Every structure is written in C-alpha cells, then in structure tokens.
C-alpha cells in the first residue's frame, strides 16, 4: 500500500496533455474568432448588396408600369341620346299564375326622334306588361332566358315606335 501514494503524487504533479487553461487550447480560439468576424462581415456585405439590388429592380419595375387597359367606349357616348325610365311593371306570369314579376326598364332614343317620349314610354310599358303575362317562369330563367327577354322587349319597343327607340335597358327584374 505504500506504493499507491507515490504513484498518486507522481500523476498529480504531471499536467494532462491538451488540458491547458480550462480545457481550451490557446492556438484554436484566435482563428475561430477571426473566422466568425470574417463570416459576419461577408454575410452583412452580401445582405446589403442583395437589398440594394432588390430595391433597384423594384424601382425599375415601378417606372416600367404597363399602361392600364382603356375602358371600352360607351355605346351611346358619341351620339345625342336620351334615356326615359318607364314606371315599374308588376304583373303575374302565365305559368305558374301565382308568380309575380316586377320589371323596371328604360328606353334609349335619339334626341328629337320621339315627339312625345312620355306617351311612347306608356305605350311600351303597356306592351311589356301584356308580353310578360304570356311568359312562363322557365322562359325567363337563367342567362339565356334573360337575353331572350331583352331581345323580345327591344323588338316590341322598336315595333311600337317604328324604329325610333334604339334599345330597352332592363334595370331590375324581380320574380317572386
């Protein structure tokens, strides 16, 4: 047992290899710090360059903004036309007979074409009411039904006014 303390003293006197100053080698700390600073500087430089490139491209695209598409010209903008609103038409349909329709329309005509626009509007309103009473609900359903109704109303208005009315505009159509 006497030999055990001698070996312990000898081992305790020697320093373990690579265990200097808290377990870090002084030759490795400085290069790591330099590489970290170098990486931070390069990353910051690349970030600044990318930000300026993006900013430049955004300002160029803002300057190159394509012209906005022009709105199509209005159909009656170049002519001297007037709009006459008819009184609302409320009537029932032929089938089913308890179904009511409320229709608000206007007529478009050239200025001076109709000698008495209110009289023409009243006659067209009467024709439209008679025509609506002959329709069934299935005839005015959907987009094609509305298109056919509009064409029929235009034809009736032109016949009544001998071609003086340019168009009948459906403003509202309520079926209940």
From TrEMBL:
Q: Which UniProt keywords apply?
A: Cell inner membrane, Cell membrane, Cell projection, Chemotaxis, Cilium, Flagellar rotation, Flagellum, Membrane, Transmembrane, Transmembrane helix
Q: Which domain of life is it from?
A: Bacteria
Tell whether Kinase is among the UniProt keywords: no
Gene Ontology biological process terms from the UniProt entry: bacterial-type flagellum-dependent cell motility; chemotaxis
Any Pfam family from its record, for instance, is FliL
Annotated region Disordered: the residues are 1-22
Q: Where in the cell is it found?
A: Cell inner membrane; Cell membrane
Q: How does it sit in the membrane?
A: Single-pass membrane protein
Q: Which GO terms describe its cellular component?
A: bacterial-type flagellum basal body; plasma membrane
Give the record's family classification: Belongs to the FliL family.
Role: Controls the rotational direction of flagella during chemotaxis.
Q: What is this protein called?
A: Flagellar protein FliL
